[in-house]
Amino acid sequence: MSSILRRPIDFIRDRKLRGLMDTKPPSIYGKSIFERNSAIIAVELRGGQTVLFHTEKRTSVLLNKTAHQVFAATDGKLDVNGISKAICKKYSADYKIVFKDVKRIYKEFFKKDIVINGR
How does residue 23 score in pLDDT terms, banded at 50, 70 and 90? Predict the structure, then answer.
């Protein structure tokens, strides 16, 4: 493809991406509940990592173990407090630190359209 044709396509892609990243996540509290986006397919890899594929946007996200635990617990029923407590129990970690991490993970999930319906 010639460089003349590539520039407009790259510009359109960049503009699209900026628009997607401007999505502001909802305020996240202990009682906030999220659901998985039905367009997400999760594939677990060896070593405890998970790759999420967004079938509509054709994007992927690599999750670490903590983010995987949050995603796995996202069922539309368990709130942020419950998920944080479960992770604390599993890893014998401090609740305040885990709660802060879970909130941060959900903000990223929401920005990437991995979760929906923050309530």
Answer: low
Residue 98 CB neighbours (<10 A): 22
First to last CA, the chain: 46
For the chain, where are the alpha helices, taking DSSP H only? Answer: 3-21, 65-73, 80-91, 95-111
Name the β-bridge partners of 63.
Answer: 50
Concatenated DSSP letters of 21-39 = HTPPPPP--TT---EE-TT
- Class of the CATH domain delimited by 3-116: alpha beta
Instruction: Determine the average pLDDT of the residues in 100-111.
Output: 92
Cα angle 77, 80, 82 (rounded to 5 degrees) comes to: 70
Which tokens sit at 47? Answer: 């070593």
Block residue for tokens 């998920």:
83
